[in-house]
Structures are given as C-alpha cells and as structure tokens.
Amino acid sequence: MLNGKLSLRSRHVPGGLFFGPPAWDAPVWPAHDNANGSPPTELPTTSASLRELLLRLKLTSQDLWTPALLHQLTSPAIQDVVLNLIAPQPESILPRVLSEFELPRLVAGLNLVRRCVSAVRTRLAIPREEGELRYQWRKAAKANGFTIHSLINRYPLGHPSILLRSLLGLKLQPGASPADLGVVLLDPMTCWLLGCWIEFGTQPQWRPVELFTHNATPRVIAANIGQSLARVLSDAGISHQNRQCIINGMMAGQLVDPEKTVLEPSIRTISIRPVPIAEDTVDCIRCGWCVSACPAGLNPAGLMAQVRMIDSLPAISAQEASMCIDCGLCSYVCPSRLPLAITIHSLKAAVGPDHRPGVPA
Ligand code: SF4
Ligand code: SF4
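^ thats the input. predicted complex w/ iron/sulfur cluster below
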C-alpha cells in the first residue's frame, strides 16, 4: 500500500504529469507508394528556397501546438535547429515509431533544414525514459554532429514554449514563432516528409496515424490522406458506433464526427472511447491542484471565476489567459470536475489575439 502511494506520488510533479513510454503493437511498416520515383536534381540551399519547396509540397499545416516549419523560416539569424522527439501527447508513440522505421529519412530531412537555415547547432530532444529511442539516434547523431538532449517527459514538455524553456532557458510566448528566439523547432512528420521527397522526388499519399481504443495497446497504421476517419477506422477493424472519436490526443484534442472528418496531414492520432458518463461539477473547493499542475504558471481557478466578467475583464487577466497553452492539465486534475481548460480557451478567444503579451494593441 505504502509503495503504491509512493509510486503514484512520484508520477505527479508540479508543472506537469509524468507518463512513462506507452506500450504499442509493432506495425508492419508499409512500402513507400512512390518508391519508383527518383531523387530531385536540385535541393534547396537557403531559407527562401526551402520555403518555396514547402509551399510546393503543401507542407503548410500546423496543429494546436506545433508551428509549421514554413512559418518559422522568417529569421535570418537561426542558431539552433531542434528536432522535437518528445511526444506531444502522453499516449503518443509516433516519434518512436518513425525513428524505428524511418531513421535515414528523418536524418536526411533534418540535415536539409539545418543547411538551409545555416544553423550553428542541431539538437535532438528525446525523452529520458526512452532508452531505445536514444540508442537508435546515437550513431546518426555522432555521424552528423547532432547533440542529444535527454529530458524528463513531464507532460506537456512537447509544447514549444515548455520545451524551449527546459532545453535552452528561452521564454517563448504561446503562439509566437520559435524563430523569434533564433530557433527552428521541427516535428518528426515534417522531417520525414522532406526526407521522403529527397529520396523519391515525391511524397507518400499516406501518413502514419496512431490509433487508440480502450482495452487495447496503441498501434500505428498507414492511412490515406483525404480519406474519411470512418473509413480509416473500419479498415483497421475498429467500430466507432456509439463511441466518441477524438483527434490529436485525449488531453487537449478535439471531438469530431468520423463520418464528416477526413484525414488531414496534421491529424496524428485517432482515439475511440465509450461515451463517458457525465459527471456533475461541484463548486471549486480551492484545493489549488489546478494551480500547481499548470505548466504555464497560471491560476486556472481564478481565470474561470473571471469569465463571468468578460466585459470588464482587467487587462492583466486577459494577458494571463493568453499565456494558456491548452494542455488540459487543469481539467484533468480538478477534483470538482470543473471545465477549466475549455473555459479558459473560450476566454482567450473572446479577448482576441491583440491581448497577447508583446503584441501592440
Ligand atoms: S490553464 Fe491552460 S496551460 Fe494551465 S493547465 Fe489549464 S490548459 Fe494547461
Ligand atoms: S483544481 Fe478545481 S477545485 Fe481545485 S482549486 Fe482548481 S478549480 Fe478549484
């Protein structure tokens, strides 16, 4: 009993929750549908030509968290390129799976970006618990002069503003570009797609997607971009009838209708779960758990209380709300089951982008 308590406590740390690497079923990795293609005759060599390539390949999408590479190629003074191999959601396994099956293409894509932006250093952010992932990258890091950084994966460490603070001690405002701080932050999918283009001259029509269902280990499948999620799920033998479908993570993802949603390049995970039984909320008991869990150092309970005063919201509160990174941790830990994250998200939307710190009104 005592041991159980101790181990539970050791998995909850201020500023985030610790999750070990999830188990997963090894997929049969699909053959590349463009494997007969030939390498391009010319590779981009500058930020401008890389931008042109990204536009041509339609690599422009970004999700709630990860800024598109295209939008980071704005500064001429890039010092660091960081490949972010920290999973953006606690249950995510994609960085590990891509590294296991597609390492040479990841390396090719990473090298292309660092040459184009003339980066001084190239860093790999890897969860400390993922010994195998580190091992996979060790040889490539040595051969290419990459520096490996092993970081304790406290969710949401994968978020750009949290990662840059842990890795380089830099303060990145939510929604700002890492390039403003002289950093390009790369997600493994973009790196992989660039690596595929370098090898085959075209990109695959599919992307790897993580599937999560209750009572089953996660797995990765290849799914065609543009296909409905309902079709992706039925091809994988998963029923979504009378269940909820959430894309891009259980903590901060989005509830969608799989019949009406198609697989976008930015959809990395699909989770299917039984419709939860609604829990009654009760009044805030001022336990402070949301405050101690918030990685952005906010007071979610205080912000929620202010939503009722939106017309007369003090500027300081508007500024505070705009620092929220939508990680969902406050809602996750709240014993009163208050909808903190979604309320603060609406508050942010209501006060608008002009209230972001550093953005002139
Ligand atoms: S207030 Fe925002 S940043 Fe803080 S825990 Fe809640 S969702 Fe995360
Ligand atoms: S975690 Fe919930 S109950 Fe506790 S202080 Fe925050 S809002 Fe109130």
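The chain has three domains: 16-33+42-200, 206-274, 289-355.
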